[in-house]
Amino acid sequence: MEETTEATSGYSHEPIENSGTCTVNIESDQCTTNTEEDETAPVDVSSYDWLSIVDMLGLQKHPAELVPCDVVGKELPLLEMWEYFYTTYSRSVGFGIRIHTTSSNECRGVWRREWVCARQGFRCEKFLCLADRKRRPRDCTRCGCTTCFHVLKSMSGTYWNVQRFDTNHNHVLAAQEHLQFLRSNRKVTSSQASQIRTYKYAGLQTCDIVNLMVQQAGGFKRLGFTRKDAYNKAAAMHRAETVETDSEGLLGYLASKIDSTDPTLYANGCQRDYMCFSDVLAFDTTYQSNAFKKPLVMFIGVNNHFQTCVFGFALLLNEKIESYKWVLETFLDCMHRRQPAVVVTDGDAAMKAAIILCFPDSTHRLCGWHLSTNAT
Predict the structure, then answer these.
(1) pLDDT at 47 (0 to 100)
(2) How far apart (Å, rounded) are the C-alpha atoms in residues 4 and 114?
């Protein structure tokens, strides 16, 4: 037995009169529990058509003219049809929606779903009174709206029946020019994602891709998503791509040498240079300035001819204390646990904390170039 819920935020402007509530009592399933979460749930509307759905329901009204008794008790064969129906209705009226409750079990799968207005409920106080908050809280959009839409799966599993259709709003609704900004109305479809991917492969920047797609669609109102959505989608597709790179090949080679006794793994001039010139060790990171988009750490020293010596380097996942601690411990293992006399870095707090833990006998100093740059 399991339960999932999803949520979105809303944005409203114009008032609307209360339309009432209509409810049908239907037997509930005892094998399900309810929980609440907040996740967005946009609908891919490319597979359904409003006219075909209203023909199946026997309705002849515009979506904004529907009242509860027109819909309660109606049946459709697929849950996705009701999702498209309620998304189209909410867009016509002028409010955002989110999935509030989804009930399921092993026997029947998903058997109940409830959509609510995006402004249903209230924000938890614990998210408004955080002691260690670094950013201001987001604007509160919840106002306790009671609008909801419940559908229930029949025991035979052949159709979905509307159990409740509440149209009462206690807030003003969104104007037509603002409907495209409601989160439930924003969706990058699969065809649009393929178009973005194709343009990215052709070398276009994301901002140029969005401008081109806006011109093709005839404006942002018809595009179906915002500029930020396009950037997020392009980044998500880039992260999902598993392309073999030089860094992955190097990591695979080093992994194969972990249990090997091959003396050539660490037998190079870096160890010998460090043994002779380990008085001062300088290391810094360049954040995602390389082709692999990872922080690059360089361990550098100076020999007796005042020439730069590279003692080692590493690609890190991030610039947190755990990553710095790992790379410093690994560096010490490679250099036979010999600590430098002086460590020179910039003013990074995570780097300083890792040095205190890994180099307790070393003296930590700030780089003079960083000091002069930050001072000016």
Answers:
(1) 60
(2) 11
User: What pLDDT was estimated at residue 243?
Assistant: 57
Residue 97 dihedral angles phi and psi, to the nearest 5°: -130, 165
Q: Considering only CA atoms, which of 293, 295, 335 is closest in space to residue 312?
A: 335
Three-point CA angle 32, 38, 41, nearest 5°: 90
pTM of the model: 0.53
CA 212 from chain centre, in angstroms, equals 25
Q: Say what angle helices 190-201 and 206-217 make with each other, to 10 degrees.
A: 130
pLDDT in tens, 81-118: 999 899 889 888 889 899 999 999 888 899 999 999 98
More confident residue, 283 or 7: 283
| Sequence-separated (6 or more) residues with CB below 8 Å from residue 81 | 48, 53, 56, 160
Plot region of 263 (φ>0 → left; ψ -120 to 50 → alpha; else → beta): alpha
